[in-house]
Amino acid sequence: MLLSNSLPQLWLIYALLSLVVLVTGHLGIRFLPRLPRWIVTGVVAGIIWMPASYALPTLEQAEPHSGIAPAIVVAAVAMLQGKGGAMLGASLLLVVGMVLGALLGFGVWSLGRRPVVAKASDVKQPKASSHERQEPVIG
């Protein structure tokens, strides 16, 4: 069975599904210019990929079950359980993830920018001697 009690498989499936969400979301907002599109994609990536630790009480009340989960899931469960402290911590991690994602989106945008091309009037044409072939120039 694909989904057994394996936590690494769960994280792998979560990573693959979140990549699908990010790619389709990025393609879905193609109407935006590049900078806002990359920043929005980075913010969403920060929201869904920021990890947070959690602790849930077990039925035996001996020791709580603890682990790491996406901060958005920890915040949602804490809100449903009415635990303000856990929700505050996860919410702060969500804000940090959003800021880091926005910075990453800005970095991707700045790496993808094309260098400014000089105008054709500013570029000096090399003088060709009479015996060399001169290539045609458009513009």
List its salient traits:
mainly alpha, two-stranded antiparallel sheet, 2 strands
**Estimated helix fraction:** 55-70%
Mean pLDDT: 85
Query: Strands of the biggest beta sheet: in what spatial order?
Result: 1-2
Written as H for each helix and E for each strand, in order along the chain, the element string is HHEEHH
Main sheet: strands, sense, barrel? 2 strands, antiparallel
Tell me the fraction of residues in β-strands, as a range.
5-15%
Distance between the termini: 65 Å
Helix tally?
4
Q: Which structural class fits the helix and strand makeup?
A: mainly alpha
Q: Tell the overall outline.
A: elongated
Q: Quaternary arrangement of the chains shown?
A: single chain
Low-confidence stretches: none
Number of strands: 2
Radius of gyration from the CA trace? 26 Å
What is the fold's blueprint, element by element?
Layout: H1 7-28, H2 34-49, E1 51-56, E2 65-70, H3 71-81, H4 84-112
Antiparallel strand pairs: 1-2
Helix pairs in contact: 1-2, 2-4, 3-4
Briefly say what this structure is.
This protein has 4 helices and 2 strands. With 139 residues, the protein is mostly helical. It has helices at residues 7-28, 34-49, 71-81, 84-112; strands spanning 51-56, 65-70.
Could you characterize the architecture of this molecule?
With 139 residues, this protein is mostly helical. The chain has helices at residues 7-28, 34-49, 71-81, 84-112, and strands spanning 51-56, 65-70. A two-stranded antiparallel sheet has the order 1-2. A hairpin with an 8-residue loop joins strand 1 (51-56) and strand 2 (65-70). The chain starts with 6 loop residues before the first helix and ends in a 27-residue tail after the last helix. 16% of the residues are buried. The mean pLDDT is 85.
